[in-house]
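Explain my protein.
***
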Amino acid sequence: MSNSLVIIPTYNEKENIERIIRKVFSLNADIDVLIIDDGSPDGTATIVQDLQKEFTGLQLEQRSGKLGLGTAYIHGFKWALSHNYEYIFEMDADFSHNPDDLVRLREACINGADVAIGSRYVKGVNVVNWPMGRVLMSYFASMYVRFITGIQIQDATAGFKCYRRIVLETIPLDKIKFVGYAFQIEMKFTAIKYGFNVVEVPIIFTDRTEGTSKMSTKIFREAFLGVIQMKINSWFRSYKR
């Protein structure tokens, strides 16, 4: 069995799911794949089930209903820990994250990082095909997070990451509050509060060409207000390990 697992949450990703799975397994990097599908009505899970006949390292967990990005990753983290993976990745299904960069993120963790972030902003702004308004919103959101929380992460909302197992064993996953993109901020903030070494690895982020974005006003509002709440709550928590 591989020591590395990439977790890919899906909801209506039939246009992308086969291509992303084939791409990961074509890397010859000994990385298994876990798809967390939230009851996609478009048949995403059926495509994955067919591919399981071809790829022994492909796993599928199906959930009933759209339960949120954060809960999907928490489900995947617990599954990964119970199956003894050492390097555990988060990655989108839509090719906005280049699977080739999985190897670079893992190398960063092998070489001393506890969490390696695929960062759009650590070396300028490396985003392709996003409208300028979306780029500015994302860039200034990270500035806002740094201002409120004090963490020095250039890409605070990044969702392309590699964790060493010890990080996910240490963080009380059931206490992670947020389910949208604020989840990404909360995981980074919590890892840093526990004293883990979080590093940023420069990547080029390319917006999806197939399927539909899951971003919404509700998700953005959760992130904006949640950062303040998260910072206040941290004053009353212990982060000893």
Summary: The chain has a mean pLDDT of 89.
